[in-house]
Amino acid sequence: EKIPLQIVANKEEGAKIIATLISDLIKEKTAQGKKTVLGLATGSSPILIYKELIRQHKEEGLSFKNVITFNLDEYYPMHPENKQSYVKFMWENLFDHIDIEPQNVHIPDGTIEIDQIEPYCTQYEEKIKSVGGIDLQLLGIGRSGHIGFNEPGSAINSTTRLVKLDPITIADAAKDFGNKEAVPTKALTMGINTILSAKRIILAAWGKNKSIILKKMLEGPVSTKVPASFLQLHTDVTVFADKDATDEL
Ligand code: GLP
Predict the structure, then answer these.
(1) Active site: which residues (predicted)?
(2) Alpha helices in 140-229 (DSSP H)
(3) 5-246 CATH, one of 3.40.50.150, 3.90.1310.10, 3.40.50.1980, 3.40.50.1360
(4) Where are the domains of the chain?
């Protein structure tokens, strides 16, 4: 099955469309007296989406009081106060600027003791299930083919766990950490199964440096070598790409 692809003029336009899909879902669920469970991503790809959601909150009264969030991943080890932590990223780029209840925010904890990681990951999965599962999962894609931090070799039935980062991912993260040596070699991430369990999935791919991996994900075989290709097995995925990202298609 082919993944539906929506090509947008640029990431600004793409971000507006995606943010509006998210806010429409929140409004619809809120009107039904229901919570909206969002799976959220970090990286450069979602930043403008979060900006637009903040704008809709400030200018149009979009409320996040009935929203529960689960982030995909976090470096390990990682302290939340660290400049590169995904906790810091999420608060700075979204949560600090909206009316979400802090107890409704979930981000994998990079300070968990190594011997507590297994039960912690099991709990993360159970928390997602206990609120009815993820309604909409937002994704970026790494040049290694990762979604979340599910690097090549990730199994289709994988769940939240500690993983080793791919050398491509470490090289790409070096700009955030100053140099390659400073990048953590591991991370906590939702699994492929966790992601595929979301009711609806939206993936954003902006820029020329995503064009080769986008082609593999959309046109290549479903393979653990390209974890994002597992999305071909989901029945409600939309990929949003700008013109540059579609250069290889
Ligand atoms: C990061 C994140 C991923 C993200 C990807 C792409 O390392 N763990 O969830 O999708 O890499 O990042 P960017 O959006 O900056 O290209």
Answers:
(1) 73, 146, 151
(2) 167-177, 192-196, 211-219
(3) 3.40.50.1360
(4) 5-246
pLDDT digits (tens, 9 = 90+) for 200-238: 999 999 999 999 999 999 999 999 999 999 999 999 999
78, 89, 147, 172: which to mutate for ligand 1, most atoms within 8 A of CB? 172
Question: Within the chain, how many helices (H) and strands (E) appear?
Answer: 7, 10
Whether the bond into 77 is cis, omega within 30 of 0: yes
ipTM of the complex as predicted: 0.93
Please name every residue paired with 242 in a beta bridge, in sequence order, or none if there are none: 8
What's the N-to-C CA distance of the chain in angstroms? Answer: 16
Q: How many Cβ atoms sit within 10 Å of the Cβ of residue 150?
A: 31
87 within 8 A of 50, measured Cβ to Cβ: no
Which residue's CA is the closest to the ligand 1 atom numbered 11? 142
